[in-house]
Amino acid sequence: DTLSLLEGKGIPEDASVVAIIGPTIPYLDSEIETLRKYIQGGGRLFLAIDPGQRHGLANLTKSMGVQFANNFVITMSPIVGGGPATILGRDFDSSSEVTKSLPAASSFAVFPLVSEVSAASDKNADLQVSDLVKTDGFSFTLTDLSKPVRGRPETKPVSVGVAVKGKVKAAESAEPPAEQEGKSFEAIVFGDSDFLGNRMLMMGVNRDLAMNTVASLAQQTDLLSIRPKIPKGTMVTLTQFARFGVIIAGLSVPILLMILSGVLWFRRRGA
What we know:
seven-stranded mixed β-sheet, about 25% helix, alpha+beta
């Protein structure tokens, strides 16, 4: 369902997951505060935010121990049909419920324009941040795509998706210290939202990555990595005589039609 934070009603208590996908306008301080209270209360948050947009959610991710770099990941080895900003996620966390079922050798996720996301250097020690998806070793980052790249940049694997869990301490208030610590929350943050769109959803493991993220946050582990059923083909076993009959039938029909068309042509010509 669609949730409007401008109305000041807060987030419903029965919300399994709150997803913020591809925001393009700045969030108000009151909206960000509502989201902070939600995660302090043990909420589950799915963030897919794009670089170059003034959504102002970097402060929210920072309070969760996640650094949204708001830069652009570039590859030195672009894929066929894609530019240097079309990034492949090739390294998946083998211990996370979201990605552990993805075949490590053959799986890849496609991100058309993605920012680096990683654990904040000054994060609280109680927050556990793990890299869900990382690029290959041919990647580097830029803060401005309009400026030319000078020299050969240093390439390395770049994290483009992280999972975080733990407790976020509330701001200073008159509440007891135990209540200020809040409940344990979970969040998954990606530096791109285009991989969830119709154009990219069926590329690589994008669909499984999206569905597993929601299922994991909603604690619906029975829905993790559900694959569409492959229809079983029907095999027809023919004997040698039956195969000979099929060949004869296949040849006799066009020959018969050619003979009939010739007879009709001669009859009409002589009429």
